[in-house]
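User: Okay, second chain of the day. Same drill as before: sequence in, structure tokens out.
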Amino acid sequence: METVVKIKPNYSRSFLTAFVRMTEIEICSSGYIVYIIINRNTRIHKRNYMQEDNLKKYKAACILLAGGRGERMGTDIPKQFLAVGRKSVIEYTLSAVFEWKRMDTLIVVADEKWRKSVTELIQRVIPEKISFAGFADPGKNRQLSILNAMNELKPHMEEGSYVMIHDAVRPCVCAKLIAGCDALLEKGCGVMPAIPVKDTIYESDGGACAQRILNRDLLFAGQTPEFFDFNRYFEANEVLLPDRIMDIRGSSEPAILAGMRVKMAPGDEGNFKLTTIEDLERFKALV
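Assistant: Same drill. Structure tokens below.
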């Protein structure tokens, strides 16, 4: 016995691919309608993966960046998928980002190889009120990964919606930091957590000689998650294509270049990024 479920055509290709692989179902298309053929024994979670008659619009999306290869750490497995205690790093991070009270949808940037395990993880831990929008492909650099995810999300986002961008390798972000950023969020703007620079900072061309000292009173270290007005930020990234976007070094840079006001919320020294083996050992000691 089979059931044919009709869904809207503007779900992304990666969304459908993840859904098909997770449930081992058949998929076919007819014109502008996609039909999913569900066998009697197929188990699915309709809540997270499709709307049968209406395409839901979202107000607050989280982009979780999990496409890195971990080359700087020198591990065989990308650091976001390493096991620490009884969980993977990305599972700790997911639990943390779900503290954003506005969030109603999540998309993950991840390589094809890891999508099955991430899908299974999300099935277990995603809160009832949040929909899983599937996956986006990693880009040639971090900013293109973000834009890939935003392209997947754009048809599903309401006017005046927001996006949160977070690194899967920052598992220690706390609810207080997220709430502090959210409190500053408003239409047309962005928010980033930042901490004052404590060390003396020198500028050098090549690292052989110090050329000048920078005023650390004016310097701050940015962290994630970063929050933006979705449509303004999308436009800020699009205008950088095809070449300028390759020079972007931080998620807030396109917003600043576009003239968006990017507020700074208090960061957290404990919200560190797992970049080196030493960072990983530090995290292990906390778990």
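The longest strand covers residues 157-167.

User: Thanks, on to the next one.
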